[in-house]
């Protein structure tokens, strides 16, 4: 794991090798009555740490292995016990140590991967919370600033989005403005050349400033000073009443 940093690959290699070794242990140490049977029971633990699907697969493999070993004579599988009686205690102790080591390694890898996942989740959550707070601040800023703010589609010269000050100042409902030509609200003859026809020649990040006459819904007219920047086919603009 410390060389390739791929926890899932480490899980799978350990599970396959452990399975082969465990089955061999059981075949030469008493079959279904071998203490190595407890090692086989640990394999689904490591598999479930990899994924639920892997865990279910290995539960099935282990159950089938138990059945085959239990009926080993019927299947013609040779089973023996090569451990002499005087070494049974040492063998059992070795099995206990191995099982303990196996579970410990599984636990370390699981903790390692879980800790990284937990850190990544926490970091993502913190970043998301931070973005939400910043977005809320920006929304409040746009909605409560006494300035006309809008987004204009440069290809059609229509309003895409406007802030609530359009209603407060010009008396238009916001849905009345969205999708309308800018020339419906701004006197076309007062617009700069770049905004008098569709398919503007404004370049990316180009800034423009102009003064034009804005038409109120009530029929009144006032001169506004506009500042805008072109980005990705849109014009982001804001305007204040021109100082006389």
Provide a concise account of the structure shown.
This protein is of the alpha+beta class and 244 residues long. Helix content is 52%, strand content 16%. It is built from 7 helices and 5 strands.
Describe this structure in words.
52% of the residues lie in helices and 16% in strands. The chain is built from seven helices and five strands, in the order αααααββααβββ. It has a five-stranded antiparallel sheet with strand order 2-1-5-4-3. α1 (7-28) packs antiparallel against α2 (37-50), α2 (37-50) runs antiparallel to α3 (52-70) and α2 runs parallel beside α5.
Anisotropy-based shape: rod-shaped
**CA-to-CA gap between the ends?**
73 Å
Structural class by sheet pairing and helices: alpha+beta
Question: What is the tally of helical segments?
Answer: 7
N-to-C series of helices and strands: HHHHHEEHHEEE
Helix content: 40-55%
* Poorly predicted residue ranges: none
Please report which band the strand proportion falls in: under 5%, 5-15%, 15-25%, 25-35%, 35-45% or over 45%: 15-25%
Q: Quick one: how many beta strands?
A: 5
Question: Can you list the strand order of the major beta sheet?
Answer: 2-1-5-4-3
Round the Cα radius of gyration to an integer and report it.
37 Å
Average pLDDT works out at 84
Please outline the major beta sheet.
Answer: 5 strands, antiparallel
Task: Spell out the key features of this protein.
244 residues; five-stranded antiparallel β-sheet; 7 helices; 5 strands
Helices, strands, pairings?
Layout: H1 7-28, H2 37-50, H3 52-70, H4 72-75, H5 88-144, E1 148-153, E2 158-162, H6 165-170, H7 174-177, E3 207-215, E4 221-231, E5 234-241
Antiparallel strand pairs: 1-2, 1-5, 3-4, 4-5
Helix pairs in contact: 1-2, 2-3, 2-5
């Amino acid at each position: 794991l410390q060389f390739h940093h791929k926890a899932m690959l480490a899980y799978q290699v350990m599970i396959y090798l452990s399975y082969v070794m465990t089955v061999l242990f059981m075949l030469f140490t008493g079959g279904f009555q071998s203490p190595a049977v407890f090692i086989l029971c640990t394999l689904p633990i490591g598999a479930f740490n990899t994924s639920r699907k892997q865990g279910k697969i290995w539960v099935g493999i282990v159950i089938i292995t138990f059945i085959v070993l239990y009926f080993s004579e019927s299947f013609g599988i040779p089973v023996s016990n090569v451990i002499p009686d005087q070494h049974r205690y040492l063998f059992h102790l070795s099995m206990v140590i191995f099982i303990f080591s196996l579970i410990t390694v599984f636990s370390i890898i699981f903790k390692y991967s879980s800790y990284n996942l937990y850190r990544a989740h926490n970091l993502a959550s913190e970043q998301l919370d931070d973005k939400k707070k910043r977005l809320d601040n920006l929304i409040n800023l746009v909605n409560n600033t006494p300035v006309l703010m809008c987004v204009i589609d440069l290809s059609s010269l229509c309003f895409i989005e406007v802030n609530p000050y359009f209603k407060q100042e010009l008396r238009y409902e916001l849905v009345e403005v969205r999708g309308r030509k800018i020339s419906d609200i701004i006197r076309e003859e007062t617009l700069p050349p770049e905004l008098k026809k569709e398919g503007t020649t404004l370049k990316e990040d180009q800034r423009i400033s102009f003064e034009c006459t804005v038409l109120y819904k009530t029929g009144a007219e006032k001169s506004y000073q506009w500042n805008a920047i072109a980005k990705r086919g849109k014009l982001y603009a804001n305007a204040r009443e021109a100082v006389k």
